[in-house]
Write a structure and sequence with these properties.
Length: 129
């Protein structure tokens, strides 16, 4: 796990998928928003070995009612909108988007999804003081 130090009372966990790293724009821009707002960032890095405690910690934070943003696309077979809705997190669902929140053949909607997720994270950062 990579840690970028910031405020001790505002800590965010960036949890990428195994095939999409935190350097991808969908995670990099929201992380930049949090870093610029002074948050501590804990970024999970997958090295081929699943560290259940990293995933478990992130899941426990969400289920503990801590502020979270979950984003998914309706064309992603792994996205479960019912589970996301029950989480209590702010949910950003992008119609027609795949697992990378890209809308095939529509770069404008893909960029719009990136902007929507980043804005949701910015809203979360502003709401936690």
């Amino acid at each position: 796990m990579l840690v970028a130090a910031g405020a001790e009372d505002r800590v965010a966990t960036v949890l990428p998928g195994s095939g999409y790293t935190a350097q991808g724009p969908l995670l990099a821009y929201p992380a930049a928003v949090l870093r610029d707002a002074g948050w501590t960032l804990r970024t999970v890095v997958w090295d081929g070995v699943c560290r259940d405690f990293d995933v478990r910690d992130a899941a426990e934070r969400i289920s503990a009612g801590l502020p979270a943003v979950l984003a998914g696309g309706t064309a992603d077979r792994l996205w479960d909108p019912a589970v996301a809705a029950r989480s209590g997190a702010r949910v950003v669902e992008v119609p027609g988007a795949d697992h990378s929140l890209e809308v095939p053949g529509d770069w404008r909607r893909s960029l719009g999804a990136l902007a929507e997720v980043t804005a949701a994270v910015e809203d979360l950062a502003r709401s936690v003081r």
